[in-house]
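Ticket reopened. Same input as before:
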Amino acid sequence: MSDILVSEQSAPGTGGSGRPSGRLLEVDDLRVEFRTRDGVAKVINGVTYHVDAGETLAVLGESGSGKSVTAQTIMGILDTPPGFVTNGQVRFHGKDMLTMSSEERRRIRGEGIAMIFQDALSALNPVFTVGFQIAEQFRIRRGMGRAESKKRAIEMLDQVKIPNAKGRFSNYPHQFSGGMRQRAMIAMSLALDPEVLIADEPTTALDVTVQAQIMDLLAELQRERQMGMILITHDLGVVADVADRIAVMYAGRIVEEADVYDLYAKPAHPYTLGLIDSIPRLDEKGQQLRTIKGLPPNLMNIPPGCPFNPRCPMAQPVCREKLPPLLQVGTARASACHFAEELVNRV
Amino acid sequence: MGRYLLRRLLQLVPVFIGTTFMIYALVWAVPGDPFAGKCGDRRCPDQYIAFMTEKYHLDQNVFVQYGNYMKNLLQGDFGQTFQQREISDIIATAYPNTLKLALVALSIEAVIGLGAGVLTGLRRNGFLDNLVLVSTLFLIALPVFVVGFVLQWLLGVQWGIIKPTVSSEMRLSELIVPGFVLGSASVAYIARVARTSIAENRRADYVRTAIAKGLPMRRVVGVHLLRNSLIPVVTLLGTDLGALMGGAIVTEGIFGINGIGRQVFRAIITKESATVVGIVVVLVLVYLLMNLLVDLLYAALDPRIRYE
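Engineering reply: fixed in the latest deploy. New output:
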């Protein structure tokens, strides 16, 4: 029955270099397409990134840029069909997860790599208590008894700073507030002490004040546990304090990857520049908000050349012909723009 | 919860009075002479008619009759048939048979319907899915008496796998085929509801979470997916139990089971009004209680529902 719910990705074999590199989690030239009735949507078009222990990588992008699909592929929860991995590897401790047996892969989930989702209300099972859903991890994965798993679950609720953890254990998800639910979700995902935590827009569904609390909590837990964290978001404001590195995605590609300070100070891709420019600023109050003109490309029909060229204010003829590869710019950053050097070196 | 229960139970009172009065009025309004043919070929003697009229208050209007009837009923007296048989005896003999048949039918509905629904919901558009869809359509389209007679003839007469009728001992093995016949249409509905429910919930976020937690697939399906998908199925099963316990005139008739459906049918034919009313009173009560039970079960299955 194992293939019913979990996408059983066929071994791509062709992609990825396959060399062991000592990295904790690596995504290597990943390509994913969605085969629908209307055609094939190329959702991920060669994504490569990695995260090491104790480090936070923020993956930034608009809806549809492929950031969540990449995470789903890492977790092995991509809906297949319609989603198919056509190329690439996802290596955990150097071992390709896409070619593992489903049982091997299942064991990594929760213990090796855990995930928290955007909407905790729908991500938690509505008919079981929050405590049950956390304790389940200890009972099923660790073989603990009822009493001990309950004790451990209450400890977890305590760790994510849920007041009256003991009393909250037997509450249902709908009896929690939004922020508390996301805390419970975090407690559940951290129960088995994972090495990597993928947080897929963990604060998008929350109030602004609660957002900051949850981000602080995540950052704190990540530091304490020295986890690798992949933080998926479309909110530049959220990542600034938390992330070490940022990977910006557009149309299923990484268009820029840089240290968080470099990226904010000097974006090396016009898309990143546009994103930073479109953050509302207090000193421009009353003026029209700046936006990136146009819409993200239709993934069934990505324009030739650089996929950003129709929206790019700096687009030149070369941008419509040649797809710029993700290349090193300076020392520790990369950009997929023909004019990356110019962007970085401008005054 | 306690207050809710009390309110629901109090609601039963007007419903109970209303339904029983309607039945009572309807039955006594049926044209025809209750004494026709009661005394062989001859007309009944006037003395007998006078005695019976007095005893059953036949000369009073329907409200007085109903009042008298309810007064006795509340003291546990269902009255007697014109042959002086205690109606409560008739119910007490027939009802256990109906209950047994209903429970067998319900179990078959639950096991086959749910099983088929889960399997097809997980693998939609496969061979099994199509097979189940076609066969459920078949069962829904066929009237019960056709399914009943065909199975009785095929299994009982042609192939001799079962006895064509059920003996008075009502053994479980004898009740399987009648139970299937009785539940056949519901099996189909339950399979379809379960299929839809499973297929819908299968892509739910919490199922994805359960997988991301690294739970074994049988637990993801058997606990997280099933528990949520069961809610509409159990509701359907509960409503059906109320209907099943109302007796099955056709199925009981085909397989010769002395159940409540047969008794009520016979009583209607022979104008045993008191028997009809007595049985219907019990059935109304059972149905109302079953409905209440389903509502309570619904809250037990889905913690988001709270009755205050």
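Residues 87-122 of chain B form the longest helix (36 residues). The CA atoms of residues 235 and 297 of chain B lie 8 Å apart. Please confirm and we'll close it.
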